[in-house]
Design goal:
single chain, 240 residues, mainly beta, eight-stranded antiparallel β-sheet, five-stranded mixed β-sheet, 14% helix, globular
Length: 240
């Protein structure tokens, strides 16, 4: 009898043990799409539709930049890192969508990345040799590497039209972006995330940028680039 009882208990344990769920492991894709606004107004090119915090009416003719150093924080504390360097031109739709195809499945609660190119990759002529990369190069005599951003347009100063060029470069001006966002990556599935950039944030929060007193051309002007860097930390939000 004792022998029979032992066999029944063993079979029961094996049966229920066999039904225990084993977490599936695998990778999924996270796809980003970037959209733009100026304090809620859609981005338009070559139109005096916007007003900066300092009170200047302005239009936008160019917005090109790099993103790098993406990290995705899993809710269990693990961090997935990517070494991708992404070039974006606001007026070229094909560059405003990019993805990461090998993110471990699971639930995530934070995304961080750099606006600009991290120091490991910000090396002159290290990116693909094409016209876009050549146009984004940062002069070697100013430290080399690449422009992190070229944001250009025209503003009105007492009804006189004058150009502006907000250029940022050099490793010390790399901008850290942190976005709290809960999302799940499924195995062999694609999770879509919509990033939105408010371009007027470059001119405010925490500091008001004034084209006349701070300079309408920021390249090689450390105080101007530092002010843009400080304002750039919250230019992005995630649309839900």
């Amino acid at each position: 009898m004792k022998h029979l009882t032992f066999i029944l208990i063993t079979l029961t344990l094996l049966t229920f043990g066999g039904c225990k769920k084993v977490p599936k492991k695998g990778n999924g894709t996270t796809a980003f799409k970037v959209t733009y606004n100026v304090d809620g107004t859609a981005l338009m090119t070559d139109t005096f539709a916007y007003t900066s915090e300092a009170g200047y009416n302005y239009k936008i003719t160019r917005m090109e930049y790099f993103l790098s150093g993406f990290k995705f924080k899993h809710e269990n504390g693990d961090v997935y890192k990517s070494s991708k360097v992404i070039y974006v031109n606001a007026f070229k739709p094909e560059t405003n969508s990019f993805s990461f195809t090998d993110i471990p499945s699971g639930k995530y609660n934070e995304i961080t990345f750099y606006f600009g190119i991290d120091s490991a990759h910000n090396i002159s002529r290290s990116l693909d040799a094409n016209i876009d990369m050549a146009n984004m190069s940062w002069p070697d005599q100013m430290g080399g590497g690449y422009h992190f951003m070229k944001f250009e347009g025209v503003y009105k100063n007492n009804d006189k039209e004058e150009g502006f060029a907000m250029h940022i470069g050099n490793n010390k001006n790399l901008i850290a972006i942190q976005l709290k966002h809960s999302f799940e990556v499924g195995i062999d599935n694609t999770t879509h995330i919509s990033l939105s950039m408010n371009l007027n944030e470059w001119f405010k929060n925490p500091e008001v940028y004034d084209f006349v007193t701070d300079g309408s051309y920021s390249m090689n002007k450390p105080p101007a680039m530092m002010k843009l860097k400080n304002n750039g930390a919250d230019i992005f939000s995630i649309k839900k």
